[in-house]
Specification:
The protein contains eight helices and nine strands. The protein has about 230 residues and is of the alpha/beta class. Helix 3 packs parallel to helix 7. The longest helix is centred in the last third of the chain and has 17 residues.
């Protein structure tokens, strides 16, 4: 516990209270205040000036991070037999159909992404109660319901992520690891933030991007000035 307190003090010395940092500064600083013995995840929390309860203010989409997330993504492909080989070659961890549907019904959800085909959705609909709360339900908008399952697998493995504003108006996502260089962290964060900026709903009034915080696992959050995103 004493060591944790020491590290927290060191972090507090590096972060100026009430200061808003540029993206470039935050990307370098987040590495300096991460004291975990493992390769911690880096998270962005963006508070938007939207009302998610209204359909015309929902913010949801996908983005392919230039340097990936640094995470090993476990992918399950539910498909017809003719597409199984292509899915396996693309890097899918699990491929099949009925046997995996049965496993999911019994409570198995040991995957990060599920990809399927339009013709299979009728069978998967009954799994909504299990997959929905875990964010695993395939969705055409996120590219996880497609005829080209092999392409979808490759994209997910290379760093494609989907995101959705929560009921509090916050978009939370992982954009890398502390082992990334500051430049890689900034690149990933820049693309994600710019993607959100381009998705501003026309019905949203006032300030759209209210706050942006970058943090690592167990670290303090560093406030970022959205206007600094495209600065070199």
């Amino acid at each position: 516990m004493g060591k944790l307190t020491k590290n927290k003090k060191l972090a507090l010395q590096k972060i100026e209270a009430g200061k808003t940092y540029s993206l470039k500064e935050a990307a370098a600083l987040v590495k300096e205040i991460s004291f975990t013995k493992f390769d911690a995840s880096l998270d962005l929390d963006v508070r938007l000036g939207v009302d998610p309860r209204k359909a015309n203010q929902m913010v949801r989409g996908v983005v392919s991070l230039p340097h990936g997330t640094g995470k090993e993504v476990r992918v399950l492909v539910l498909c017809t037999p003719d597409a199984e080989e292509a899915a396996k070659e693309a890097g899918a961890d699990y491929v099949g159909l009925d046997e995996y549907i049965a496993k999911i019904k019994s409570g198995w959800t040991d995957v990060d992404v599920i990809i399927t085909m339009p013709s299979i959705m009728g069978k998967i609909g009954a799994l909504g109660r299990v997959l929905g709360p875990r964010g695993l339900m395939p969705n055409p908008k996120s590219g996880t319901v497609t005829m080209d399952v092999a392409k979808a697998v490759k994209e997910v493995k290379q760093g494609k992520i989907d995101f959705k504003v929560d009921k509090s108006g916050i978009v939370h996502t992982s954009i890398g690891k502390t082992s990334f260089t500051a430049e890689q962290i900034a690149d990933n964060a820049r693309l994600f933030i710019n993607t959100l900026l381009k998705m501003r709903p026309t019905a949203a009034k006032g300030t759209y991007m209210k706050s942006v915080y970058l943090s690592s696992t167990m670290s303090m959050g560093i406030k970022i000035d959205p206007k600094s995103v495209d600065e070199n």
